[in-house]
Amino acid sequence: MGVRTKRRSDTQVVCGRRALLDELGISEGSRRLSSERPDNGCGCAECSAAQWNTQRLQHWLTGRLTAAGAEEATVDATVKGINVDVFWRKGNRRCVIELHSAALDITAARAHRERLEAAGITDVLWICPAGYWVPLVPAVGIADFAPTGLDYRIEQGMVAPGEFDFAAPITDNTELRTFLDGWVAGDIEWAQLDMTNGGWAHVGTWERHTSAQAAMIEHQRRELRDQRVELAVARQAVRDKQKTVSRLHNRIDRAGVNADADAITMAGVRSELLAQQRIAMGLRATVARMDRAINQWQWLTCCAMLLVLTVVVGAIVTR
Asked: TM segments (predicted)?
């Protein structure tokens, strides 16, 4: 966590400046530990300066909130047992500002926000360095915790109307005092851009963003309706084709049944033809045997007649 103004009960404290550098991956070396100081600073000049800058920003915030119309603005307040850096109230709105000079722990920040909302807090704002964590929680990333003078500028966390009026992140270095004036007045609110990221913008920007989303949703609804109609027509065409194919299958099945019956009939006819062929072959064999027998009897008859003729001629000659 970053350098905080409230004192802790830890016995060992990591140098806040080096912790931030380690979070950003540009560590200068081993972290400096101190078991003599119970607060968040390790006693080095950098941590002392960071604590002073954070305290100065806290008191500057209370002054700006009061000037913007807040009825109450308190540093190091307690909300139902929960310690907060800055608490302010205007009417029924009860809001909290948390200051962190290092990277945010997203899980811890969300849990802290849920506890504060359960305690009746309307909005929670984190002021921290710019980084990937800023869009994930209601936070603004400021360029410098120790600017020249008191001109704090926001370099991450604000959104503005973009293409087709959809809200999109901007980096135009909005002044923190301008942001606070709009926030206290209720003109600037935090909302989700998508499922994970969010940002701060004027209410009019969110109205335009919501209108653009509604128009996009309506357009998508019309497209979906048209696609459903096309799908219904396609399904009807598929059903008609399925019916046609089913009728063709039935015809094919009936033709197959008829073909099977014809095949059975042809098989019977073929069997009869084979039987007749066998009978014909038997008759041919019988006729052939009879022809051979007739030929043999004809030869025998001729021989007998020749023999008789020979006997008769011999008898005549003998006389």
From this structure: 299-317
